[in-house]
Amino acid sequence: MSTTTSTQIRLRERPVGEPTADTFETTTVDLPEPADGEVLLQIDHLSLDPYMRGRLSEAESYAEPLAVGDVVMGGTVGTVLASRHPDLAEGDQVLSYSGWQTHAVEPGRAVRKLDTGANPASTALGVLGMPGFTAYAGLLQIGRPQPGETVVVAAAMGPVGSAVGQIAKLKGARAVGIAGGPDKARALTEEMGFDVGLDHRADDFREQLASAVPDGIDVYFENVAGPVLDAVRRHLNLYARVPVCGLVANYNATAAPEGPDTLPGFLGQILTKSLTVRGFIQTEFVKDHYADFLAEMGQWVAQGKVRYREDVVEGLENAPEAFAGMLRGANTGKLLVKVS
Amino acid sequence: MSTTTSTQIRLRERPVGEPTADTFETTTVDLPEPADGEVLLQIDHLSLDPYMRGRLSEAESYAEPLAVGDVVMGGTVGTVLASRHPDLAEGDQVLSYSGWQTHAVEPGRAVRKLDTGANPASTALGVLGMPGFTAYAGLLQIGRPQPGETVVVAAAMGPVGSAVGQIAKLKGARAVGIAGGPDKARALTEEMGFDVGLDHRADDFREQLASAVPDGIDVYFENVAGPVLDAVRRHLNLYARVPVCGLVANYNATAAPEGPDTLPGFLGQILTKSLTVRGFIQTEFVKDHYADFLAEMGQWVAQGKVRYREDVVEGLENAPEAFAGMLRGANTGKLLVKVS
């Protein structure tokens, strides 16, 4: 077997605020041949996700930070080029966590062979992967929407948000999505089947929101924080549930924003409305709910009951710019890098 | 039966910020004779509780505001002077919600006859009443302390806080109490059996707190908000629970305090630590848990396993000043007014 070369993007220095050109560097390495039990992979798609911003910092997060000099982490789907693992064969499509690189050698136990009969392999990074499961588990285990209730989700054209709204609809709730810009807002109703799609950049966003939730809000699936939360929280009903899944508006912040201090007001609301505000990471629910998710959501996607959009950037070299753009809300749908 | 006169304290004008001498006025009325099904009560003790501050304002709260001109509301224990209800007899000790007055005529169904065999009647306003049930339900249903976990409660010498710590101990958890002033802090360990009692006014409070929770905090029972919350929340463990029961530090506030805005930081913690922050009012749990509470807590109190302290102010005319003092943290234990 000839030597395989992997082009890799590594963390050069920790970003302060928004990631810049200095944050990353590109290296090329010769990969070893796979040892017994290992496979050689060609990476086809790399997933870019907001959680990665936290891993680039030393600040305390729910996961260990990436070390400076490491290949940037990330979920990937790829093709087995060579296998020394009994359950995997050349040509298999697999899910792995190989990160920002073109090729990788992985232990066979660290990759999952994908069933690409019903749905394309790339869905394992989005609607049928971590973002989809985040939506499924957070909405159903924490949000617990009841038929007739109103569910609001922000970043609603993102891979988590669009799944949240569609699952809410399948469970009999009303789905109101909030996104950045009129095109995304329109896609929420036209493409994703939400009852209402709102553009939080509209001048009259607060009025539009008030009209969209005449019975108040029972579940607010929190993806963004910032001004959207400030508008939404005024409509939360008694006993409303707020799964806190992400806070992308705050991820690049380097210090607490200027006042006034809105925490006392929010706590007052938590008290007077008996709210449940619950942070979560999807890993908490994997053991009890992942198999159900793959079965139920896989069927919904195959039947077209849950739709998804992919935003595919060509070439690993464009991953850093695409990643920074995602944190600004520049993309629509699941952001993937087509690596090879 | 001769006419009975009731001296009453009414809401004269809504307070802006701290209640003042102008907030209340005293009136005297002749009570009608009890009609069929009613009882005439002499009020023995009036309960003063932080929630009343919210009811004096028009601002949205979990209960309807008091109307200007109404007798101020409040839980009371009293003695039946005359009864036209079959289940109540002259001399019975009863719990009612007669408010700030010396006598009242009440429908028999609005009063509960007290069993004063094991515990004194006044406990029905404190450790065996609303504050005790608030502690019991909030800690056990939301906080769910496990043996060996660390429970922190502020306003810990108050009637809710002292019960929270003692119930936590009975459930096998470690109890750390926070109170205002060295005397209260000492009483937490010496009188209430907490593992640690801290004075949040001490210069080195943050250091003392850090030493007191070497394994972090699993349950923070929130009674006060403000700087205490700011210190405590830095120690919350993964999956910690924060029952939000009261926010006395904020009750007199008339506007959001100056920045920086600490809400984004708190939300970030909720996310990275998978926290559950849950507001509640004890009424939510009455149906399912009140009978258990009366049985279990009544036994604990009778056996001396849960202790309580009463701070008794003599004379209804002193209720307004005692109420304002309570909001400043001036009292220790359950604040009662001895009415007659």
Write structural notes for this entry:
- Chains A, B: GO terms for molecular function: oxidoreductase activity, acting on the CH-CH group of donors, NAD or NADP as acceptor.
- Chains A, B: This is NADP-dependent oxidoreductase.
- Chains A, B: Keywords: Oxidoreductase.
- The structure is a homodimer of 340-residue chains.
- Chain A is an alpha/beta fold and 340 residues long.
- Helices cover 28% and strands 26% of the residues of chain A.
- In chain A, strands 3, 4, 5, 6, 7, 14 and 15 form a seven-stranded mixed beta sheet that branches. A six-stranded parallel beta sheet of chain A has the order 10-9-8-11-12-13, with helices on both faces.
- In chain A, strand 11, helix 6 (226-232) and strand 12 form a beta-alpha-beta unit.
- In chain A, helix 2 packs across helix 3 and helix 2 (130-143) packs across helix 8.
- Chain A is globular, with a radius of gyration of 21 Å.
- The mean pLDDT of chain A is 93.
Domains of chain A, number: 2
**Approximately how much beta-strand content do the residues of chain A carry?**
25-35%
Low-confidence stretches of chain A: none
Mean pLDDT of chain A: 93
CATH class category label of the largest domain in chain A:
Alpha Beta
Order of helices and strands of chain A: EEEHEEEEHEHEHEHEHEHEHEHE
The CATH H-level homologous superfamily of the largest domain in chain A: Medium-chain alcohol dehydrogenases, catalytic domain
Helix content of chain A: 25-40%
Architecture (CATH level 2) name of the largest domain in chain A: Alpha-Beta Complex
- Output the structural class of chain A: alpha/beta
Shape of chain A: globular
